[in-house]
Amino acid sequence: MGETFSWLKGHGTENDFVLLPDPDGTVHGDLDADFVRFLCDRHAGIGADGVLRVIEGSKQSYVEDGGAWFMDYWNSDGTIGEMCGNGIRVFARYLSEAGLTADKPIRIGTRAGVKEVVLNDDGTITVDMGEPSFPGPAGIVVEANGHQWPAVHVNVGNPHAVAFVDDLREPGPLLDAPRWSPAEAFPNGMNAEFVVRKGPNEVQMRVHERGSGETRSCGTGTCAVAVASARAAHQEAPVTYKVGVPGGVLTITWRDDNHLEMTGPAVIHARGEFSRSWLPA
Ligand SMILES: N[C@@H](CCC[C@H](N)C(=O)O)C(=O)O
């Protein structure tokens, strides 16, 4: 059967990931884009929106402070994202179920810095997502299927364009990545969120993720949407939003220390062994 490696699958509000345990970094070395694309392929591979390689913080060389455990996150098209909000909850769930940590909080390193993650008694997981920033410029426009909307740039470790729409059907099928102008607003691409307000502290959104297409949820996207919604309504921190996505609901608090706190579910729902001899030639 050749050399095998173990994998798991997990999801957070139906944003799904292949996890690759690689504690000392010797199982997968440097992941490559072709391998990630194959793993995420829903027909020929295992199928997922992204890959999370699980490596000890001291065994990785991507960032200075890798935390106790480092989340090596990849989008399904083989590109790297700085941060993944749903992924980090799934990552923490795996660490806990595998008995790899009992820390409270768990310090998880990402390419957007170390995040503190707490497993709550009610089964949810809370992540300190850090401080948002609003790099601008003013006057950003997002376009999909011939429709255009004004958008705001919110960075929560990765870049988001948040656009308020009248109806979530307005953007149409998000088969292609939404475009934006001016071009320099997002030099490294962006994740696009389309949002409708449901109540004073409740919104519903769709997301097209950079590198993964339209997904059923995006944790960093819900953070960007919560803070953009609060600012649009002239609400000040602390404020809590329920953010609905096609795959569930996340609770986002913009704390008075300016940090965003994300709480939501995460499950591991499959595991297996894979032989490298099964990889396409
Ligand atoms: N699904 C994620 C975001 C993953 C990264 C994103 N596609 C990017 O390239 O920035 C989440 O839950 O935050």
Gist of the model:
The protein is mainly beta and 281 residues long. The chain is built from three helices and 18 strands. 12% of the residues lie in helices and 42% in strands.
Topology of helices and strands:
Elements: E1 4-12, E2 15-21, H1 33-40, E3 50-56, E4 69-75, H2 85-97, E5 106-110, E6 113-119, E7 125-130, E8 140-144, E9 147-155, E10 159-164, E11 179-181, E12 191-199, E13 202-209, E14 213-215, H3 219-232, E15 239-245, E16 248-254, E17 260-264, E18 267-275
Parallel strand pairs: 2-3, 4-5, 10-12, 13-15
Antiparallel strand pairs: 1-2, 1-18, 3-4, 5-6, 6-7, 7-17, 8-9, 8-11, 9-10, 12-13, 13-14, 15-16, 16-17
Keywords: Amino-acid biosynthesis, Cytoplasm, Isomerase, Lysine biosynthesis
Active site: 84, 218
EC number: 5.1.1.7
Plain-language structure description:
It catalyses: (2S,6S)-2,6-diaminopimelate = meso-2,6-diaminopimelate. It comes from Kribbella qitaiheensis. Pfam families: DAP_epimerase (PF01678). It is an enzyme of class 5 (isomerase). This protein is mainly beta. It has 2 domains: 134 residues, Diaminopimelate Epimerase, Chain A, domain 1 (Roll), CATH 3.10.310; 124 residues, Diaminopimelate Epimerase, Chain A, domain 1, CATH 3.10.310.10. It is built from 3 helices and 18 strands. The protein has an 18-stranded mixed sheet that branches. The mean pLDDT is 97. The site of the ligand N[C@@H](CCC[C@H](N)C(=O)O)C(=O)O has 16 residues, from helix 2 and helix 3.
- Portion in beta strands: 35-45%
Q: What is the CATH H-level superfamily of the largest domain? A: Diaminopimelate Epimerase, Chain A, domain 1
Distance between the termini: 15 Å
Mean pLDDT: 97
- Our Rg estimate from Cα atoms comes to 18 Å
Please name the CATH topology of the largest domain.
Answer: Diaminopimelate Epimerase, Chain A, domain 1
Give the helix level as a range of percent: 10-25%
CATH architecture of the largest domain: Roll
Residue runs with pLDDT of under 50 for 5 or more positions: none
Count of extended strands: 18
Total individual domains: 2
Largest sheet: 18 strands, mixed
SS-derived structural category: mainly beta
Q: Helical region count?
A: 3
CATH class of the largest domain: Alpha Beta
Ligand list: the ligand N[C@@H](CCC[C@H](N)C(=O)O)C(=O)O
Q: In sequence order, what are the helices and strands, one letter per element?
A: EEHEEHEEEEEEEEEEHEEEE
Subunit structure: Homodimer.
InterPro entries: DAP_epimerase_AS, DAP_epimerase_DapF
Binding site for substrate: 15, 75, 85-86, 158, 191, 209-210, 219-220
Protein name: Diaminopimelate epimerase
